[in-house]
Amino acid sequence: MNRIAFITGASSGIGRATANIFAKNNIDLIICGRRREKLDELASTLSEYVKVHVLCFDVQNFEETKDNIDSLPEYFKNIDVLVNNAGGAHGLCNFINSEIADLESTIDSNVKGLLYISKLIIPHMISNNKGHIINLSSIAGKQAYQNGIVYCASKAAVESISKSMRLELVPFGIKVTNIAPGAVNTEFSLTRFKGDKKCADAVYENYQPLVAEDIAKSIFYCIDLPKHVQIADMTIFPSAQSAATTIYKN
User: Fold this and answer.
1) How far is CA 78 from CA 73, 109, 168, 226, 237, in A?
2) 53: helix, coil or strand?
3) Which residue among 151, 204, 207, 221 is the active-site one?
4) Which of 176, 203, 227, 245 is most buried, most CB within 10 Å of its CB?
5) Could you give the CA distance from residue 165 to residue 160 in angstroms, rounded to a whole number?
6) pLDDT range class, residue 193, cuts 50, 70, 90
């Protein structure tokens, strides 16, 4: 019987890449996101390899999240791996000039959404006495930087959540891994700069950033280790990066 993975933010970027590598390694999937068309397209592709169930909802809305998870067919409720990937940064500016809507969206997706999903899925893992939770943090959760107050705070919260989860869940045989990527060329910067492609592209110019597949391979490595091995925390940089805002550009 295949393992089953629940992946949030699966319509693009790291979530999509993770779904791809999981499917090619015989892991059945629940893929979640807000863009139904992209999820259906991904499901159509991956159904060649494994069973795929699509859930289209916004993790920022608890009732919507609960209704979707409650609707899972019996087979898909036996979740072995949870990848809390959904989230993002909204805006990059001085805190005083930031928009309240951006601050709320950052906290709601990166922190509250992760908590909503986890609160609903962990009881299933506890009853099965097994499971592996992957929380996507960021180097921003370890090293704060200017013009990123709320994003950095939200990812620092993910770091703390991962540590506390591990303390609470180890008696139930549930592993918790915190993944903290550095610069990854996905839709992240496009969202942060509100669709300004020129600004987004400039973030990744004159060096080789990570790509979504690099992080997906690292996630798969963590969940593919023997039962007695738990990667607690993994920080991943492109070779040109040495700190949150320190990148060597040619």
Assistant:
1) 10, 25, 20, 20, 33
2) strand
3) 151
4) 176
5) 8
6) low
Per DSSP, 39 falls in state H
Q: pLDDT of 87-102, one tens digit each?
A: 887 777 788 888 999 8
User: Which residue is listed with tokens 């009853």?
Assistant: 127
Give residue 98's pLDDT: 84
Q: Is 204 a catalytic residue?
A: no
Strand 233-236 versus strand 52-56 pairing type: unpaired
**Which long-range contacts link 19-23 to residues 24+ away (Cβ below 8 Å)?**
19/46, 20/46, 20/213, 20/216, 21/213, 21/216, 21/217, 21/219, 21/220, 22/50, 22/81, 22/220, 23/49, 23/50, 23/52
Instruction: Looking at 89-229, list the stretches that DSSP marks H as alpha helix, in order from N- to C-terminal side.
Output: 100-107, 113-128, 149-169, 188-192, 197-202, 212-223
Angle at 31 between CA 27 and CA 35, to 5 degrees: 155
* CB neighbour class for 234 (10 Å; exposed up to 12, middle 13-18, buried from 19): middle
Q: What is the pLDDT of residues 16-37, one digit of tens each?
A: 999 999 999 999 999 999 999 9
* Cα–Cα distance for residue pair 128/133, rounded to 1 Å: 14
Looking at residue 9, its pLDDT comes to: 94
Question: Which pTM does this prediction carry?
Answer: 0.95
